[in-house]
Amino acid sequence: MARQVDPFVITYWNAAQLFAWVYRGDRHSVLIASDGSHELRTFFERHKFTNGEYTWVERTLGKPGLSRLAVAAALFGASQSFDEAKAAILEALQAGRIRAWGIRDGSDELRLIDPVQWCDLGFYEDRHEAIYAAPQDIERRFSFKWTGLRFLKAEVLAEWPDPLSVLAESDEAPLSIGGKTTIAAENACRKKLATLMRNGPPEKPKADYQKDFGIGKRAFDRAWGNALADVGPELAAPWIKTGPKKKSSE
Hints:
The N and C termini lie far apart (58 Å). The longest helix has 17 residues, at 183-199. This protein is of the alpha+beta class. Helix 6 packs across helix 8. It has helices at residues 15-24, 27-32, 66-76, 82-95, 153-159, 183-199, 206-213, 217-231, 233-236; strands spanning 12-14, 41-48, 54-61, 100-104, 111-112, 121-125, 131-135, 146-152, 176-177, 180-181. Mean pLDDT is 75; it is low at 39-43, 60-64, 71-79, 165-181 and 243-250. It folds into 2 domains: 12-159, no CATH class; 163-239, no CATH class. The protein is 37% helix and 19% strand. The protein is elongated and about 60 Å long.
């Protein structure tokens, strides 16, 4: 089997890679969204119960079309909702901060899609889970569509930076800027959590670990979930619960 090209060294990403990055922020999800990829990815997502408690659930992600990602968001939650991720992508396209190329109505060449068109366009998928752009107005939905969408990876990463390239190795990075947890602090937390998980089962509740790291709850939840995926299902299993089991009193 031919080795897949690292998507972080190529120039353009497809729509599935764009959504995988903005929604999940996970490098391997971008890899399996590459054209021709048939690889599966095991990861953990947070499942919240109606009583407010939650646990971590193991899932296998196939090639991440819109429906797969949307279902994952609805069932298991994420650092942001799928609708928020989609809205953020459309806003960046409308503002011209990222650009898209596509093939309109089966023509034989890629064309740059004018930013103003994205005020009218939305993302959809066909029965093969291929993502395309078409008018949001239901009466005009099938009047035309853009397929074969491509996005400049550099523009995507400028809008949604790669945690591994922004002070990622610094253990002395500031915890927050303007009240928001820095990417470097979140990534350092992820690395340290993964080390703890490899060393054995948890010694205290998850909330206590968050206090130790001193970063925001949403950032810590992302770091926790990514660390679970980093160490793999076997080592992650004892950490799926929110903390160690209480000893029964006799």
